[in-house]
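WARN retry 2 of 3 for item q-0093 after timeout on previous attempt; input resubmitted unchanged.
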Amino acid sequence: MKTTTEEQALETARKLGERAGANAAEWEIQHLWGGRATREEKETAQSVLQRLEDGDPILYDSFSLPNLSGEWAGDPTPHDLFQKCKGYEYFPEIMEHQEMLDELCTEWETAVSDSFFSTLEKSARDFLANS
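OK item q-0093 returned
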């Protein structure tokens, strides 16, 4: 059974992941159909919706979602996430809580993916309804 503090940390990770996923989707949307409505943009939005409905794995692999690699400046790492969610600042303290770190990372990554694709789907539907 999780403690209230652990549940709060997981909720924080989920919210951070949702925000990261939605922000990433908004950037992708600008490239897909965020400009002036044209035939190509409509076809792209229709294709994305169809592929989402079909569960097409290629669609899911075709986007670069935020991750915890810290590869680019400003990108989060597991250490950063743990620090934001639990408040521990030093690596040895974090390593004492490896199981919680893994759970926070999983929660964040799941929220990123869910938020990214739901934002993408909503935008495609809105775009098609208004074009």
